[in-house]
Amino acid sequence: MQSQFQPRPDDIILATFPKCGATWLKVLVFMITNRSRRAVTDDNHPLLTHLPHDLMVCLEFPLCYIHPVTELEVLPSPRLICTHFPLALLPSGVSTLGCRVVYLCREPKDVLVSTWHYMNNVYRELFTEFDDAFELFCEEVSVYEPIWDHYLGYWKQSMIEFFS
Asked: Which of 62, 71, 90, 162 stands 20 to 30 A from 4 (CA)?
């Protein structure tokens, strides 16, 4: 990832742990950054014709969306980029170039419940009992990293930048 993604100073990166409200955040940031280009009442507004996930690059799933990571360089500035990656997996330029990072976290128990419902609806064979999901969550089993480490990575960086 660090070799494929070259950040720009005016990039806006939306970061969340999975099931923390990324879709909601994408809609809000897209509306704010595009308010001068499109009227909310426009019948062809992108949010009426596309899913929020399709309106920006998602670093984890470059082949699933309209803008794969390989096309990042041709996107106009400011680029809207979303990720569930921990901060440590992003290029150092995200911090040193001054990219804006919007981080959204959620009450961990709500993340667990949302993840469990999502997994049971999409991947029924993975989680059948809530107790199993609860144990895995408490044992800090995650595709990305444990939730508290994810939260703290971004929070600590925000404190460094805030007090610099």
From this structure: 162
Average pLDDT over residues 10-30: 95
In the structure encoding, which two tokens stand for residue 91, read together?
């290029």
Helices (H) and strands (E) in the chain, counts: 6, 4
Burial 51-70 (b: 16+ CB within 10 A, else e): ebeebbbbbbebeebebebe
CB 57 within 8 A of CB 65: yes
- What global pTM score does this model have? 0.85
**Cβ contact 99:9 at 8 Å:** yes
Give the 3-state secondary structure of residue 16: strand
- In order of their start, the domains of the chain are 12-105+145-162 (3.40.50.300)
Indicate which residues carry an active-site annotation.
84
| Cβ within 8 Å of residue 37, ≥6 positions away | none
**Residue 69, C-beta contacts closer than 8 angstroms, at least 6 positions apart:** 4, 5, 57, 59, 62
Q: Say how many C-beta atoms besides its own lie within 10 A of residue 87's C-beta.
A: 22
